[in-house]
Amino acid sequence: MNYLQGLNPSQQAAVKQTAGPVMIVAGAGSGKTRVITCRVAYLIEKGVDPFNILVLTFTNKAAKEMRERIMKAVGPEAKNLWMGTFHSVFAKILRIEATKIGYPSNFTIYDTDDSKSLIRAILKEQQLDDKLYNANFVYNRISNAKNNLISPAEYLKNEHIQAEDNSTGRGKLGELYQIYAQRCFKAGAMDFDDLLFKTNVLLREHADVLYKYQNKFKFLMVDEYQDTNFSQYLIVKRLAAINENICVVGDDAQSIYAFRGANIQNILNFEKDYPDLKVFKLEQNYRSTQNIVNVANSIIANNKNQLKKNVFSENETGDKIKVARAFSDNEEGKIVAEAIVQQRATSGCAYHDFAILYRTNAQSRSMEEALRKLNVPYKIYGGLSFYQRKEIKDLIAYFRLTFNPNDEEAIKRVINYPRRGIGDTTMDRIMIAADQHNLTIWDIICEADKYLDARSATSVGNFATLIQSFQVMAKQHSAYDTALHIAQHSTLLKDLYADKSVEGLSRYENIQELLNGIKEFSEREDIEDRGLDIFMQDVALLTNDDNDKNPNADTVSLMTIHAAKGLEFDNVFVVGLEENLFPSQMSLNSRTDLEEERRLFYVATTRAGKKLHLSYATSRYRWGTLTSCEPSRFLEEIDAKYLELDYKPQQKPTGNPFFDDERSAWQQKETFSKPKPAAAIPKTTSILPKAHVPSEGFAPSDTSGLQVGMEVEHERFGYGKVLNLEGSKPDLKATIFFKDLGQKQLLLKFAKLRVIHS
Length: 758
Known about the structure:
This protein is of the alpha/beta class.
């Protein structure tokens, strides 16, 4: 049993306790995967037939890794294990038992796109408003019902559900669910949620099948038990009912998937189901430095609803956790990118040793642009690059058409998105006419009444008029005003706003983030031309990627914290630590939601092995308006002795005790060393200065004689001092430290400065 060597006493005890109900509470970085694989290997070496062992995971990657480790320990016998994700294992069982519930054994499994396509077809047949009954919303409503084991019949009978649907004007959701289920059944198809829903039906209504698998799976193990939903919980409980040789492994402090239906109570209340439960706590963190572990502990200590444990590390103490403050999200990106370049140069780290974690996908924009400017290679993990996301490409296609209406690919992308009654048949006719008459597609669109039937010509003509109106707008207004106008009048913004699903909200936020970037671009004073067409040129360069498909490429990883679950990096940057962003504004209405946000922060910090960096911005653009931001309450909850402010000299406004190193609240132990309950922590008042009011009679001076050391006034930025001048006329640039905003670089010919003292 060489595989047991190197396990600490707690790990060994958990491995060797094979009989009866067991819960292994595995803290972050505590060697959980090793314990699970050793426990399975131990069972096999003790004579348990692998065919009688069921191991359930949440990812195929985890299952593959575990099986390979077990094979190294016990040999080919490991191939006979029932091991895999909930969906893969129960799909296998359903194929064996399908006829019991009226399905063919070769039933089709619909993916999400298949399901949504069917829903859209049903909505069309039922002549329902696809804005009110958005396909994503309907799909998520049905999915939620299935995960709570609510059948179509039960959905229609439930007075509370019906009242909720009627209150939103969607009284036909139950009927749609029923039709959808009937159509799937008729087609011999199950969607992903059905794989669990139908398994519950099978085990509930067919006692012989339940008995068969209860006796087959004499030993059950469930990884990441804190992420199970009600449907998964019931399956596991039913299968373990006879032998009760069930072992669940997880960490309540890492339960972050409530939005997917995960129920933290499954792990918190596990002992109520099994009073003779034996609990083992894996509390030694092998991944992170002592300081990182201490920070994580001080964060999660604020949650009331948890299984208490004392996570510790015997690794080196490590550096204090650096906290950086930026004036904007763009500056935050610059700070992070520069820190990566510097740290890589001084420590010899590879790019793949770095990860940037954020709360929402939209935050990747400022990070991506900053990394690109410094030629730092990166990849978006578990998602698309910001400018490759569909909603971004859709809006940018409208921008492209505004400046080049002959852009054929842009026309194809948006001529019927959002829907305006121009189907594939009409588009085919347009393309044929263009080919026959040797004209561009845009030429045909502009004179649609010559080439198309009256009905199609009207829709296509309206599209042409829309694009032409955008062209007029672009000639007369700023980049931001034009972009916002296009987003609104194309109805793309309205279409995304109507989708209230998690995915829909993310897409809507991404459009907001794109517009924020354009707003900042339109206010730059270091370039002469700030039109939307120039912005488009910059974007074209940004998105002209090499598309390196090498998974082993040396790149910085960018991802949401949810996507980072289970991963680890030597160096981690957690960005955007601001109230209403992290914690999310939607989480502030209940302790339950706020505690999940805090667990999410805990997960983020525990991804780091050697160095952890935290950062926030004091302002962000929201729909074109520069909005002040408050530091996250989570920062205040960290014991100050583990933190180090990482502000550049030019970033520290004087006279502000919150940001001044000597008087910083971060260093005031009496303020921060004793974390307060989340509900009792007062909101920080706005930390941005009030907007500058120009002095009476403000008028720009002649700056041809400007010199370093002169004091100046800017109409918006206020009073400042010239620190540096570089370049030559007419492109002379001045670096100015403004009293209220910090350092900025301005192109003098556009800056409009009033010289106060020379």
